[in-house]
Amino acid sequence: MILRYTTTLRSLRVAFAIGVTVFAFGLSGVTLAAEKILLAEGLDNPESAVVGDDGRIYVTITGKPDAEDDGQVVAIENGKATVIAKGMNDPRGIGRKGKELFVADKKKVWRIDAAGEASVFVDTDGFPVKPFFLNDIEVGPEGDVFVSESGTFVANGAVYRIRPNKEVSIVTDTKAAPGLKGPNGLLADGKDHLLLADVASGRLYRVEIANGAATELAPGLGGADGVVKDAKGRIYIGDVRGGRVFRINEPGAKPEVFAEGFKSAADIVLDDKGRILVPDSKAGTLTAIPIVD
Fold this sequence. Notes:
Blueprint: E1 2-7, E2 12-18, E3 21-26, E4 37-40, E5 46-51, E6 57-61, E7 71-77, E8 80-88, E9 94-97, E10 100-105, E11 108-112, E12 118-122, E13 134-139, E14 145-149, E15 158-162, E16 168-173, E17 183-188, E18 193-198, E19 203-208, E20 214-218, E21 224-229, E22 235-239, E23 244-248, E24 256-259, E25 269-270, E26 275-280, E27 285-290
Antiparallel strand pairs: 1-2, 2-3, 4-27, 5-6, 6-7, 7-8, 9-10, 10-11, 11-12, 13-14, 14-15, 15-16, 17-18, 18-19, 19-20, 21-22, 22-23, 23-24, 25-26, 26-27
């Protein structure tokens, strides 16, 4: 057993390293977090990830800022990234429905079929309001594709629902929920609700799909990006600006830091091994963090 001491301005931590796993205990009650496992590096602005039907991890690559058509979707396997779709503009959120993948690409949504063929699923003019910054994707339990619209990160935010027949409707927007500033991360919470992370305000909401009403669950989440829930119902939120992952242990509980030290913790996802996958767009990495109770 190796005893390590680390002093910061915020807290004094004592870390015990056992084998390859490190457990961090904060005096302020920071949640246990396992050592980070690097899955891939050298990625050109990775944004979002999802585990495919084939077990591979698919990651959206936004490419150079303001460059057009350099966006890609890559598959990560044994530390190697293989391009499966390219020619996108600024792909961000990615979700899976069976063998299909859906990608939010700023002003349109792509579909990648089981053969790896990419096609536009819903183009710009298919939305009720012309999109400005489509961000995250979530596939609901009934097969609907939900897409967040971050707008200007001050106004014009919304969440859309795309039916399998490509019919698009507004789930919520700043008219139905005036507190929304920059809707980003989405997670289905049963068939009637969505969890919504607002990247501009740093707040987590629970949205009722039927009427768009948004109930605030937690503030203080920095640049709230991706949101996932583990088997015990605990909610994790990536902080893209602060490079942290927060955890909310139960309803009404104060968010705690689950992991930190990233340059940017973007659209996180839970994999089939019980790990939080963190695309770090600034560092160009994909990292796994096993959940430790």
